[in-house]
Structure formats: structure tokens, C-alpha cells
Amino acid sequence: MWTNSNFQLFSSSNDDKPSLGLGFLDSSEPPLPPPPPPIEVLSSEVSSSVKCTVEPVNLDGLTLLKGRVSTKDVLGLPNSDLVPGVYEGGLKLWEGSLDLVKALRSEIQNGHLSIEGKRVLELGCGHGLPGIFACLEGASVAHFQDFNAEVLRCLTIPNVNVNLSEKSLPDPAAEVRFFAGDWGELHQLLPHARKSEMNPTSCSEHDQATGYDVILMAETIYSISAQRNLYGLIKKCLSHPHGVVYMAGKKHYFGVGGGTRQFLSMLEKDGVLASSLVTEVADGSSNVREVPVLDYVVMILCMLSKLVWRVGRNQLHG
């Protein structure tokens, strides 16, 4: 059941303090329990037993709606931002998701990005605001993933429904689906993911026809132990060679060593994806936040190799 309540930009589980993204970063990460198996959560499985309120979020003139539910009501857990391997913070509205929507909007307005007709995947979605924005921009496919199925049933699906029902969609037939599970196994379930990582030097037409055109993620790189699974999933999901990843997060998550700097350093060493900074946010509400965009290092090489092949073929048959 959705009811109106007063506007609050950053929500917490069942208190009124802003979510600054630092409270769970005071100690090293303990060993994690086995992850739940990946499953698809149908939109018809929305919870009817958990009370959820809805509030407007104004993003520089764009108004989206966000829900608030109690961690205790949804998962039976005490008021907490994170229980590693059990609950990964999906019920809170993190600053990075707002940064990401603003950055996407700016990229589209500047002509650097088009989402219309694209396949979009939001990882670690929570409220799903970036994925909702992609739907409003005409995505043909919008898939939402969160670690917890109950987050999807009690928050994401209702939040997607209430936002999309308020707007006139460019593509009313867009495919919207929801998936829960750990990043290490999720590729087995996602419709547009490959079963293994793609050869980064491949330029085949088949590779271009598979994968997601745009991957979105906010506040997903705080845990070093989960970063390799996240990166592996990206390489199995991202369309080649023109797919892009927009990510939002803090430069450093003190206490666990994660952050955008550490994650991008891992990518640089791997050499498959390159990054460029879209925006940096230093508003004093938390440590410095960033929104980088990732794309394939070999995209230009693929284009050149195709050009050389075509020139050679023309000369051969000339």
C-alpha cells in the first residue's frame, strides 16, 4: 500500500537520519555466508503485506518517486545499512543513485548518450531510479537486479510501477524484468548475458547482437571482496564493442578499501575497459563521489580492423 508523506531526500530504514554511506564502513569484512541462488522475481509477486510510503525526489527539475519501507518489516533485521552476504543495503536510497540519474540526464542533453531503443541493466538497483529513468528515456529493455528478492518484491517493483504509471513512456511495450541473486552466478539467469566472458579482441557481428547496451550501477563497489564478481558479470553482460557502463560511487569507502579509485585501477590493469570521468560531486555531505563511464578499449581497434578488411577485400576483387 502506497501513501503520501513529507519529502525527504535521503531515506533510512525506519528513522529520519540521512543515508551518507559511511556507517557500515568501520571494520573489515567478515567471511560471507553462501549467496542465495539467482532467481527471477515476477512483477506480479509484489508484496502486499509490507507498508510502503512514497515521496518525491526532485533532481534538477526532474521529479521521480521513491519508496520507504522498514528493514525489520521486509527482512526481519534490525535497523541496519548492511549485513554482508545477507542484506546489501537495497532498501536505502543512496546518494550515488541520485548522482547517476543527474549524470545520465546531462549526458543525454549533451548528446553523449542515447538510451532510446537500448537494452539496459541496472545492477544493485534498490529503488531503481536510474533504471526507471532509462525507461522514461525510451529503453526497449530495462532489467533490474538486487541481491535480495525481498527488496525487489517490497520496494523495487512497487517503485518502478508507481513511477512508470505517472509518466507517458516513449516505449510502452518496453520489457521490464527483475532478477535477484549474487553477481557471481547471475549471468546464468540474465537473458542478454553470455555464459562466459567474451574475447575482448573479438569483433564478430554475434558479439554485437548480445549483451546489454547500457549497464547502470550506483554504490556497488564498496566491497573489495565482491568487486571481481561484479567486474566479471559486467564483462559477461556488456554488449560489444559499443556497450557502456555508467557507475556512481565514492572515491573511497573508508574501512574496507573499496571505492571508485580502487575499482578503476583493477579495470586499468585488466585492459579490457577504459574509463573517463563524467562528473565529480564534493558537496560536503560525504566523501567525494564520482560518476565515471566505462567502454571498451578495443572498440576503435575493431573499427579499424573492419576497415582494413574491407579495403583489402575491395582491392582483391578490384
TrEMBL record:
An example Gene Ontology biological process: methylation
Molecular-function annotations in GO: protein-L-histidine N-tele-methyltransferase activity
Region named Disordered: 1-37
Enzyme Commission number(s): 2.1.1.85
Keywords: Cytoplasm, Methyltransferase, Nucleus, S-adenosyl-L-methionine, Transferase
Primary localization: cytoplasm
Source species, domain of life: Eukaryota
Enzyme class: transferase
Locations listed in the record: Cytoplasm; Nucleus
Record-linked Pfam families: Methyltransf_16
Compositionally biased spans, kind Polar residues: 1-13
GO annotations of cellular component type: cytoplasm; nucleus
Family of this protein: Belongs to the methyltransferase superfamily. METTL18 family.
Name of the protein: protein-histidine N-methyltransferase
Organism: Corchorus olitorius
